[in-house]
Amino acid sequence: MNPAEYLEYLLKLPELRNAKVSPDGKWVAWSWFQIGPAADVYLAPTDGTNESIQLSDTSEDTMVVAWTPDSTVLLVEQDQGGDERAQLFRIDLANPGMLHPLTEASPNYFRRGGQLHPDGCWLVYGANVDVATGQELAPTWVYRHDLMTGERVPLACPEKGGFNIPLLSPTGTHILYHRQDLRPGGYQVWLVDIEGHEDREILNFGPSAKVWAKWLPDGERVVFLAEAETHRRFGVWHLADASISWLIDDPSRNLEDIVVPPGIAESIVVVTEVRDARVRSSILNVDTGVESNVIPPSGDLRPLRPLDDGSWIGLYSSSTQPTDIVRFAPNNVRPETFLSLTRVWDRTPIRPEHLTPAQDFRWSSVDGLEIQGWLYTVSDPKGTVVYVHGGPTAHSEDRLIPTISFFNAQGFNVFVPNYRGSTGFGLAFQEAIKEDGWGGREQDDIRTGIEALIQAGHAAPGRVGVTGTSYGGYSSWCAITHCPPEIVAAAAPICGMTDLVVDYETTRPDLRLYSEEMMGGRPDQQPERYYERSPINFVSNIKGHLLIVQGRRDPNVSPENVNVVINALHKANVEYHLLAFEDEGHGIFLPKNQRILYERLATFFAESFE
Known about the structure:
This protein is an alpha+beta fold. It is built from 11 helices and 36 strands.
């Protein structure tokens, strides 16, 4: 397979997101990227007897949001060119291909989530808008939307901004949501009834501690993860008497998520633990406390829902396996026994042997902290591309990433560091980024990783480039403005922050508290830190090659970041190249644009390393 063919196959390699099993357990739906010109929604029976059904066929990405309680309708959303101002639709399984609008197109606000009440008349979602005035807000209010009259009633009105997806109880009586009214880094759980009469805080473990909650199927209990000083604890809150039962309180376990399977009678949850960036899932009976591991010998398995015959539906992935929805037996989690419901391998000529497996790579940073990353090597490399994950509150897994596979096919080693601040290594490691704020020692982690690669012979001086999207783009800017060219010869930041003050002022309202949490305050409270950590103030240091990539509709890292840095580059007489996409938002996702981006990146890094 030649490189040109391989690129075409990669651009058509299905990428799966937002998989959700129906409450009755008979169907699973997901959004598939790369199948067509935009992402579309697909459906498959969980018994594996039939091929998947395409439910949407549109020019904009269509994302699965939720099932209706009766399992006959899917709620989906679309925005315009990645602007994230999404419209909500319904797709009836009996009439696939027809999207029926439920909310207005191109709103002047950001809507979060969307669930249909069991009576079928009301929608519940979050929106940063005051419907009385039509004005966009910083906080996300909780709304009840009457589908018959169009009336939207605000049931809860948090005071401050913050990302918030309300969760309607299975019985339809109450709604869970999160507030960040106390401090930027803290989440508290609140409960409001469907009439909006009673709005109260139910879970608070300190103004700076985060707690996340979900309903159990009985609608009478809430499971939650709460941050303690050193770890996260798992508990159950009871609606009847507001009591708490703790089920897991173990500092040695790095709990990162709780999945509540929909529509089942038993009180079973899936506990997701991540150790050294590898998933370790377990199935826990909330009533008995019995817990059983479901950890395959290779790859990551995330169970979603049990079926009547004792089998489960789950997500399976690795660096040589596209993310797949599989049916498996919990007492036999060998991948060769899994039944693919998407039949993803039937849609591509790419095979596992065409993909480079991820190797674990570790090194010590400037303060002795051990850092982990993934290394993808080729024979006789042209150079090494450092691919930095976004977030920063996220981590890179042993997972197939087409960008990495493309770089390997073009003859580049690829290095993916999980710097401090990443999830997957415990709460202390995740919180360590706050000691310095953005642009601190997490950037030293990346630089020392490059130095360790050079020492180990996986990279050569003057032949290392850095790229990534969002915080990965910001890290690319940090690298090219602070590292000598023998360490970083080139950078291709994609949708990356350049001026942290400008970014704070122009980003989505619900993201400003995240900046405050990470930087220790607002720009007016931490002016020196915001200045010192903004790459725009150091562009005169650039000695390497620079390619700037941006989506013009990005509401997260706004294009203003590019506008201001271009002026600074001109003043400093620094040469650069710009690749902007008018129909993209926070990231480059459309296949037609990815083809342009991939080819440009390969040429850019190859020429930079010559």
